Structures are given as C-alpha cells and as structure tokens.
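Tokens in:
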C-alpha cells in the first residue's frame, strides 16, 4: 500500500494546535509572574505597615517605662529618663530603629496612627512605598517584555519549521507528480516507436508513407533525447558537475539558429515566431550549447502553453552593462501565485490545461541553473492567466572581442 504523507491541511492543524498550546503557556507564565510580583509588593507593604506598628509600640513602651520609673534599654546605653523624653528624642529613637517611619504633627494617610500621648502621628515615608511600586512596575514590564520576546521567538521558530515542512511536503508532491510525468514522457514515444517499427516491418508501404513514418519516428526520438538530456543536465546541475565552456559569443546568430531549429522541430510557423534584435552586436561570455538549451526550453514552453494561432516574440536588446533576451507569448499566462514558483524543481501549474500538456517541471529549473551559472538571472512575468507570459533572461554584457 502506498505510504501516504500527511496532507498540508493536517500539518497546518498540528502547527496551529502546537502554537496555541505554546501561546497559552506563555500567557499563563506572564500572568503567574505578574501575580507573583503583586504578592511580593503586598508582603513588603505589609512589612512596612508592621514597622509603623512596631515603632508605635517602641514609643509607647518608652513612655510607659518613664511613667513607671523603669529602666529601659536605650541605644546610648542610658537606662533611665530623668525627664520625660522630648518629642525630638522620641522621634530620633523611632527613626534610628525604623527609618521608614516618620513622626508627623498631623496624619497624612487614614492608616497613620497617633502616638500614645497624642503628641504626634506615625506615618510611613512615601519613598519606600514609591520604590516598591516602581519595583512592581519594573518587574511587570520585564515580565511582559520577556514574555513578548518568548512569544516572538517561539512563533519565529515555528514559522521557520512550518515553512520547511510545507516546502518539503510540496517537494514530495511535486516529486510524485514528476515520477508519473517522466514515466508517461518515456512511455509515450517508446510505444509510438514500437508501433511505427511494427508497421515498417509488417506492412507494405509506399515511399511517401515510409518517409512520413520516418519523420514521426525522428520526432519521437528527438522527444526522448530532449527528455534524457534535460534529466542528465538537471542531475549534473544538482550535483554541481554541470560544466560550462564559456566563450565570447555574439547572441544574435545563436538566437537565429535556435529559433530556426525550433521552428523546424515544432512545425514550420507553429510558434508564430518573430525575432526582434537590436542593430548593435551584443556579446556575452556563454556556453553556446547551454544557452541553446535555455532558449529551447523557453520556446518549447511558449509552444506548449499557448493555443493556436500562437504568437511568440524573441527580443534581444542591451540594457546598460547587461543584455536582455525576452521570450514572450500570448498563451495561457501565469497567475501571480504561480509566478514565483515556476523555477522550482518539479513545479507544474496545477490546472487542467497543464495536466493535458506533457512536461516534467524541470525545464525552467534547468533554465535558471544555467542562467545563474552564467552570472545572469531569469525572471517570469505575466499580465495574468490567459494573457501570455514573458521570460526575461539578463546576462552580463562583454565588449566585442575585437574591441576589447
Ligand atoms: P514543464 O516540463 O512542465 O513544461 P517547466 O519547468 O518548463 O516544466 O515549466 C514549469 C511550469 O511553468 C509548467 O508546467 C507550466 O505550468 C508553467 N509554464 C512554463 N512556461 C510557461 C508559459 N510560457 N506560459 C504559461 N505557463 C508556463
């Protein structure tokens, strides 16, 4: 039984579920941290309040001790007050033991307490409370920033993993399509060759029929040759062993030769081909065979993905330090969704029309590999489905060898 890979939507659901769980965990963590900071603030403010109560107790004990003539341990070591301790002395004693408590003439907050003799009130200095509040805000801010950073980092990681998985799945699907496309592409000309061979050996044919069959067999062989050539080139490009023999090359003669040969191969006039070259000679450093493969693939696509009557234009022009070769057709065109993917290995547009056309999804991948290896770039553009497509090859221009 076929080993089925998970579908894209299953992956998406798993991804969303894991992201959701992680997101909830991070939010829970932030919440816990903030609550913990709140508890800490509460505990510290309780401790401050307690210190006010303790200060009150200390002062009351001092007064009581004086009233009852008892010795009380004081910081200076004196044991007894001969005179009632002045408010100033009491204030100092309180401040020494409880620096956060202040002795004030009137209450500042409702929690402030009056001294036992009603001479003044005990209040908490505002600075430590303010400091505590600042600490809380700092801690909330730090937690929120760390949490946000964690969320972003986790999401970023997930997006990368998600994209990688999606790409792999996409590649797997394209590879599967490729295998069946190659099988089909190999089987069709082979079956056709078998039929023609049988016909040649088992039937009595006129010279005209023989010539017709010969031409059809040559077409099948050409198709097989092209497919095997493309497969070998792709394998070489992937393994890095695609060797290019770069030589100064004038483009116009090469373009003319390829256009003529493709016109013959695809049927005279079938491409509706028009070659439009600028009058100045344009030279590049290129491998003629490899560049020929690039043009053949682009022209073959213009033929495959256009309906009759086809109109194909090949334009050659200079653009600053570069040379532009544009192959345009008025065929089925490409959607903006498919445009960035057409150069991917095994990619074929998933519409019905493409399925009806023979192909492996390797031609444009090879085109891109070859052009890139020439130090150039290739771009696809389209005005939209049904409105044709343009493939622009940009190559670095070199001076004519005689002028160099
Ligand atoms: P294929 O062997 O399928 O032609 P290519 O790599 O050459 O492989 O092209 C990839 C896909 O890009 C094609 O399957 C087709 O869907 C789309 N494509 C290529 N050239 C054209 C074009 N000129 N017009 C419309 N679609 C094109």
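Residues out:
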């Amino acid at each position: 039984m076929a080993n089925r890979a998970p579908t894209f939507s299953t992956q998406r659901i798993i991804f969303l579920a894991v992201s959701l769980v992680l997101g909830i965990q991070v939010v829970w963590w932030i919440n816990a941290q903030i609550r913990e900071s709140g508890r800490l603030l509460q505990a510290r403010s309780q401790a401050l309040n307690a210190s006010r109560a303790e200060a009150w107790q200390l002062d009351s004990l001092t007064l009581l001790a004086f009233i009852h003539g008892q010795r009380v341990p004081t910081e200076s070591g004196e044991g007894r007050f001969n005179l009632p301790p002045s408010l100033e002395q009491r204030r100092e004693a309180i401040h020494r033991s409880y620096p956060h408590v202040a002795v004030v003439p009137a209450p500042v907050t409702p929690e402030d307490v009056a001294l036992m003799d009603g001479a003044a009130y005990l209040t908490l200095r505002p600075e430590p409370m303010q400091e505590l509040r600042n600490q809380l805000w700092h801690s909330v801010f730090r937690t929120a920033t760390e949490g946000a950073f964690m969320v972003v980092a986790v999401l970023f990681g997930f997006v990368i993993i998600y994209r990688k998985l999606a790409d792999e799945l996409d590649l797997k699907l394209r590879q599967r399509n490729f295998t069946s496309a190659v099988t089909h592409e190999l089987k069709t000309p082979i079956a056709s060759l078998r039929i023609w061979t049988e016909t040649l050996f088992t039937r009595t044919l006129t010279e005209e029929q023989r010539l017709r069959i010969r031409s059809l067999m040559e077409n099948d062989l050409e198709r097989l040759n092209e497919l095997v050539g493309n497969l070998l080139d792709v394998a070489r490009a992937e393994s890095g062993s695609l060797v290019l023999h770069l030589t100064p090359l004038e483009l116009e003669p090469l373009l003319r030769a390829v256009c003529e040969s493709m016109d013959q191969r695809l049927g005279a006039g079938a491409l509706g081909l028009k070659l439009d070259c600028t009058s100045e000679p344009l030279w590049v450093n290129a491998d003629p065979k490899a560049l020929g493969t690039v043009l053949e693939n682009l022209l073959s696509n213009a033929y495959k993905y256009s309906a009759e009557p086809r109109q194909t234009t090949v334009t050659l022009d200079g653009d600053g330090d570069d040379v532009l070769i544009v192959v345009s057709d008025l065929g089925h065109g490409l959607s903006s969704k498919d445009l960035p993917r057409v150069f991917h290995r095994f990619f074929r547009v998933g519409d019905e029309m493409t399925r009806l056309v023979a192909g492996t999804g390797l031609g444009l991948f090879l085109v891109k590999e070859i052009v890139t290896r020439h130090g150039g770039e290739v771009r696809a553009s389209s005005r939209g489905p049904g409105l044709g497509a343009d493939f622009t090859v940009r190559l670095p221009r070199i001076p004519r060898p005689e002028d160099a």
